[in-house]
Amino acid sequence: MYDLITKDRDIHVLPFDFENTEDVKSVYLLSDIHFDSIKCDRKLFFKHLDRAKEENAVVLILGDLYDLMNMKFDPRGSYDSLRPELKAMAYIDEVIKDCSEKLEPYKDIIKLIGQGNHETNITKRHGVDPIQRTVGILNANGGNIIAGYYAGWVVIKCSRNGKGGRRSFPLHYHHGYGGNAKRSKGVLNVDIDMKDYPQAVIIARGHTHQKWYVPVMRDVLTSNFNHGQETVHVVQTGSYKKKDRSIGWEVEKGFSVPRLGGWKFSIKPFGQSYDIQCEELH
């Protein structure tokens, strides 16, 4: 299993060494799990984690692992949306304990857990960092997981038997911002993100619970100053939280029904470079 190498607080390298042309490496991009919510589709979430474990894939969780909306004075909260086993005085502790115990079997494949607005809200209001605490528990049990930030880079660095074929594919992640974008689905941000992060070959965004994949071709100069083309893969990562159809924060705000799941990127040697394929997890 490959571990992330930290270059800066928000820049990490994921080294992939390919044994032959048939060797395939996979990266799962998941976000907006909202694990402690009664609306979280845990069955689907664990289905995808089990699949990743079978494939020996790398899992990156890009924010909102937690829901954590039932603290006092949180206008989004609803006591009915909290799982019965988590209804305790030490609410945050119970949520973190429950999630950490259930993620423990996957500690070897999860390599980064980033922050989302649900976690940063808890840190701002209560001085508790749920992601740092979760990662600390999993790492104490043998994991090697990075507690990521709200945004950052994971550079996928490929080589072949350590002897050549070196190529890097920068992935930029950002948990996301703004509303549910019912008309545009947030696709209008594709060009802006490509402008802001021109080195990124994969761009991943979350938060809105929208889900889509937009591949964009662009002209590039090769290292030998020849003409070339490459694909920029832009994904909105989706969610694992089902929408209540009759009452609750999402209903009051008019949010769209989310398409659940995440995305899987597969990388395989192809000629002098590598082929990247994107597959929906649903």
Radius of gyration: 19 Å
The CATH topology annotation reads as Purple Acid Phosphatase, chain A, domain 2
Termini separation comes to: 25 Å
**CATH architecture call:** 4-Layer Sandwich
Largest sheet, strands/sense/barrel: 7 strands, mixed
Helix content: 10-25%
Low-confidence sequence ranges: none
CATH class: Alpha Beta
Give the quaternary arrangement of the chains. Answer: single chain
Give the topology string: H per helix, E per strand: EEEHEHEHHEEEHEEEHEE
Describe it for me?
- The chain has 282 residues and is an alpha/beta fold.
- The chain has a single domain (5-281), classed as Purple Acid Phosphatase, chain A, domain 2 (4-Layer Sandwich).
- The chain has six helices and 13 strands.
- It has helices spanning 42-55, 91-103, 117-126, 130-140, 189-196, 249-252; strands at residues 5-8, 11-18, 25-30, 58-62, 110-114, 146-147, 151-160, 167-174, 202-205, 211-221, 227-237, 262-270, 273-281.
- Strands 1-2-7-8-9-11-10 form a seven-stranded mixed sheet, covered by helices on one side. It has a six-stranded mixed sheet with strand order 6-5-4-3-12-13.
- β10 (211-221) and β11 (227-237) form a beta hairpin.
- It is globular.
